[in-house]
Design brief:
alpha/beta, eight-stranded parallel β-barrel, single chain, TIM Barrel, 9 helices, 288 residues
């Protein structure tokens, strides 16, 4: 179970990046919480971990993993277990409010691929993911969130939509969902899928199943959209976020992701405040 001393994640946060350490250390910032990439802090010391331990005194922390590759069919038990034990130590040290990973694979025949690669959306992959998520939650003794991912291929063996896959994964394992709205839009353009329908499916899940929302920028490469996290949130993604605010009937913490061409911190804070304002507007309209 989650430690009682962990601070709950609420409101609007930003990803903590090393170029902004000094901003956070020097003065309070208008972010309700911070999210870090787990693998950057899994060592037993160093400056990054020191900064995180200082900032956790003032900001709730979310651990967002990018390296576990839960859906890797050939991943060794030893490799998965080593990663989980490192994550468990970090959780004990930091006591985060949320812990998350991705619906993806990243290893084959003992080779690690540094990417979030898409799974076939079929029952065989669902069974594997359920086994891996069950194991992860058992080792960590807490619920985890699984994030929908941006993809550039779909498989002929797909048997369901990504949202239906995620909904069934949550039902079978009790995991929560990290809903990345930019990824929904990227997949809508790349594959002709309905982001609106996906949001409807997520919104109709039991209360609090969606435990976090991500917003980010993407790159138009002509033949497809690329989820590069290197720009402000696009207008079409803001429209989908407004729809999510209208349909999801409970408060969900929201994160602004920005991982490439990282600007000054005030730009991320400005995006978080825009999300805050749009959410407030939807609440006001709902009450009216």
């Amino acid at each position: 179970m989650q430690s009682s001393s962990a601070t709950a994640i609420t409101g609007f946060g930003v990803g903590l990046r090393s170029c902004h350490y000094r901003d956070f250390l020097n003065a309070p910032q208008a972010a309700d919480w911070l999210e870090i990439h787990t693998e950057n802090y899994m060592g037993d010391g160093g400056y990054d971990l020191h900064v995180l331990e200082v900032l956790r005194q003032d900001y709730p922390i979310s651990l967002h993993g990018v390296g576990l590759g839960l859906g890797s069919a050939s991943a060794t038990d030893a490799g998965q277990e080593q990663h989980l034990q490192g994550l468990k130590r970090l959780i004990h040290r930091i006591e985060p409010g949320l812990v998350s990973e991705h619906l993806c694979w990243n290893a084959v025949q003992q080779h690690f691929l540094n990417d979030l690669l898409p799974l076939p959306l079929n029952n065989a992959a669902l069974q594997l993911m359920c086994e891996r998520v069950d194991r992860m939650q058992h080792v960590l003794q807490r619920q985890v969130l699984i994030e929908n991912v941006s993809t550039y291929v779909r498989f002929a063996t797909d048997e369901m939509s990504e949202a239906a896959f995620m909904a069934e994964l949550s039902r079978k394992t009790g995991c929560g969902i990290l809903l990345d709205i930019n990824n929904l839009y990227v997949n809508q353009v790349n594959h002709g899928e309905s982001a609106n329908e996906a949001i409807r499916i997520y919104a109709n899940l039991p209360a609090s199943t969606v435990g976090e929302i991500h917003l980010a920028g993407h790159l138009d490469a002509g033949s497809c959209l690329i989820d590069h996290h290197g720009s402000r949130v696009h207008a079409e993604v803001w429209k989908l976020y407004k729809l999510a605010c209208q349909q999801i009937s409970y408060p969900v913490p929201v994160l602004i992701e920005w991982d490439t061409d990282i600007p000054e911190l005030h730009v991320l804070i400005d995006e978080a405040n825009k999300a805050r304002q749009l959410h407030a507007m939807q609440l006001t309209e709902a009450i009216a």
